[in-house]
Write a structure and sequence with these properties.
It contains 14 helices and eleven strands. It is of the alpha/beta class. The longest helix is centred in the middle third of the chain and has 55 residues. It is elongated.
């Protein structure tokens, strides 16, 4: 799985947990080759004279050959799934950590199409090569023992097939890239269109949007047909050349004056080799699909690995309790090259600071504070500093105790309502969380199973105001040192909004909020550089 320096790389396939599987595949390939030699030799004996014992032995060896190929497929699937699971974990971690994450459609396409192309290369491309090469070598030795010209015929077929496949490989790669690109566009368009279905329907635009999706579908169809042309050429040549090899083998045996037993043995071995050679066309196709998928997945994997290594290197030896114990003065510094030029913010407990600027600036700032992504620009001074300890250097389970957030861009995750309420504090008391939720406007009596109601599809069956009440509840739970809010509060039921505003105006920690939230009394504002009345401490 190594790549040239010009191409992005993925994790090593030969790694702990997979070495035994690869060694097993090599052993299975050698075993299948030995079975093939024995079967060919015995069939040669049968051609010179029938023997029931020899026939039964051939049947037993064929069953052994079947068992070896069966094991090859099962072990290959284990290897492929183990590798893809590692990639999927990194891919999802990147999508969740990235401050500007991809759309749902793109993430789904990457998690299905691109990872499937990588899995197919391992299971149906790489593995047949790893297990098939020993079989070809052992069969070649068997043919050499019959006559060197027979082995030479096999080598000639292998060279011809390899040459044709190498010629077709670049076009296969380009067609695979084009198909993957168009599939990604189609997935993103479908995802965005479904998300905007209410606005589209209200504006009478259903036919227009369906036609746009259909236009993208046509591009996918055209790219698929183009890839099929190369795939057909690859597989057709990989199957046709072994047929030529069979004819060449018969001609060579006749030229060498070999007897019927030797001819029967040679044809049997060539037939077994034909199955392995027939896989080469698929292997090359899957290899090019893998390379196209790698160009998309590998940069994301490398960035996620870089973030993970930075986390391990920079984790603070202090925990959340220690930071809280030293006081709760807060300093927020945005990255120097992050694009949003805000001055350093210094705040004391009890302050309520309104973030100002454009909508995009406000959204970027509160999201960065809430998600801990201010350090993604490799600026070691950037971040949320609490008691002179940087919260980004803490493990996520500790950081969540210090910073609570409820933002418009958030939706509840899948699971029960009880789990969602205590998602930031899993160990919090459920009765207290429910009491706080009621104060925020959550109507438990209207839910089918109260706190055990299952939430799915972004918070259903909760309505927008009830989802806001849930998110605000868990942000307020146990009064974190820093509370980050935006216009999500305006979705709260009227009575819940009044209760929450009262809590915020008397909040013991630091409140950072964006947008116009009636009733909240800001102690100061935080504005981009060059704006008047920047917050100073």
């Amino acid at each position: 799985m190594s790549a040239s320096s010009a191409e992005p790389s993925l994790p090593r396939l030969i790694a702990p947990g997979r070495r035994k599987l690869l060694a097993g595949l090599l052993g299975v390939g050698i075993l299948a080759g030995l079975f093939s030699i024995c079967i060919g030799w015995l069939i040669g004996r049968l051609s010179s004279g029938f023997s029931l014992g020899v026939l039964w032995l051939v049947v037993a060896l064929i069953l052994g050959f079947f068992g070896s190929k069966y094991l090859e497929r099962v072990v290959a699937e284990k290897l492929g799934q183990h590798y893809v699971a590692q990639l999927r974990r990194g891919l999802m971690s990147h999508a969740l950590r990235s401050s500007r994450g991809p759309s749902a459609g793109i993430t789904i396409a990457r998690s299905t199409n691109d990872l499937s192309s990588i899995r197919n290369w391992i299971v149906q491309g790489l593995v047949p090569l790893v297990a098939g090469l020993p079989l070809l070598v052992v069969s070649g030795v068997g043919l050499w023992m019959l006559h060197p010209l027979l082995a030479g015929s096999l080598v000639l077929i292998i060279v011809l097939e390899a040459g044709i496949l190498l010629i077709l490989a670049p076009g296969t790669f380009n067609s695979a890239r084009a198909l993957r690109k168009n599939r990604g566009y189609l997935a993103a368009r479908i995802s965005d269109t479904v998300a905007a279905r209410t606005a589209i329907s209200a504006s009478g635009g259903i036919d227009r949007e369906v036609n746009r999706v259909q236009d993208s579908s046509l591009k996918v169809i055209q790219a698929s047909v183009q890839r099929a042309r190369y795939a057909g050429a690859l597989r057709g040549s990989a199957l046709a050349l072994p047929l030529f090899g069979t004819a060449l083998m018969v001609g060579t045996a006749s030229l060498a004056g070999l007897g019927h037993p030797a001819v029967a043995t040679a044809l049997t071995l060539m037939g077994i080799c034909s199955g392995s050679l027939g896989e080469w066309g698929k292997a090359v196709e899957y290899r090019q699909n893998y390379r196209a998928g790698r160009r998309i997945i590998a940069p994301l994997w490398q960035q996620q690995r870089k973030w993970s290594e930075a986390d391990r290197e920079s984790l603070s030896s202090r925990d959340a309790k220690e930071l809280l114990g030293h006081g709760s003065a807060v300093r927020i510094q945005l990255p120097a090259d992050g694009g949003e030029q805000f001055p350093v913010l210094r705040a004391q407990p009890g302050e309520r600071i309104q973030v100002q600027g454009t909508q995009a600036q406000r959204t970027e700032v509160v999201r960065g504070i809430a998600t801990g992504s201010l350090d993604q620009y490799e600026d070691r001074l950037a971040g949320v500093w609490i008691a002179e300890g940087r919260s980004e250097d803490l493990p996520a389970r500790d950081r969540r105790k210090l910073i609570g957030s409820a933002l418009e861009s958030m939706v509840p995750e899948r699971g029960t309502l009880a789990r969602a309420l205590r998602y930031r504090h899993p160990g919090a008391s459920l009765p207290r969380a429910l009491d706080l939720a009621v104060d925020c406007g959550l109507d438990l009596e209207q839910l089918p199973d109260r706190e055990q109601t299952k939430l799915r599809r972004g918070g259903e069956p909760l309505g927008r105001s009830q989802q806001a009440a849930l998110l605000v509840t868990r942000a307020l739970l146990r009064e974190p040192t820093v509370l980050v809010l935006d216009e999500l509060l305006t979705r709260l039921p009227a009575q819940g909004y009044e209760q929450v505003v009262r809590r915020i105006n008397n909040y013991p920690g630091v409140v950072i909020y964006a947008g116009d939230l009636p009733g909240i009394e800001p102690t100061s504002s935080w504005q981009p550089v060059g704006s008047p009345a920047n917050h100073q401490q």
